[in-house]
Amino acid sequence: MASRLNPYIAFDGAAREAMEFYQGVFGGDLVLNTFGEFGAPDSPDADKIMHSQLETPSGYTLMASDVPEGMEFTPGTNVSVSLSGDDSDELHAYWDKLADGGTIGVPLEKQMWGDEFGMCVDRFGTAWMVNITAPPS
């Protein structure tokens, strides 16, 4: 799979409604996953969207999630650029360059869903998310 670059939007509890709206606008296939489905069934965030992805017939990809309790939500700064794919070397190299001189919010490491994932803000203030798909087991 080639790496992809797309917007990732954070919402304060409205990710499901917003992504269903965007599906109505752009069409396509929408996948919604909650925090409860990814290992936090008893958390206050269990029904919130941990990750959603809309793949449109025009080739657009839009991703979004709800901000979990304890994390700040600031409208106007709620969009990140997402890099994802399965080429670990390529994506690690991008991560190293993007994080250099920036701020790491989540270290690039294996997560509960099996992929490697990290979040950083580069030295210019752009928020980045990197997800490296786990190899098939």
UniProtKB/TrEMBL annotation:
Protein name as annotated: Glyoxalase/bleomycin resistance protein/dioxygenase
Domain PhnB-like: 5-130
Keywords, ordered alphabetically: Dioxygenase, Oxidoreductase
Any one GO molecular function term: dioxygenase activity
Tagged with keyword Oxidoreductase: yes
InterPro entries associated with the record: Glyas_Bleomycin-R_OHBP_Dase, PhnB-like
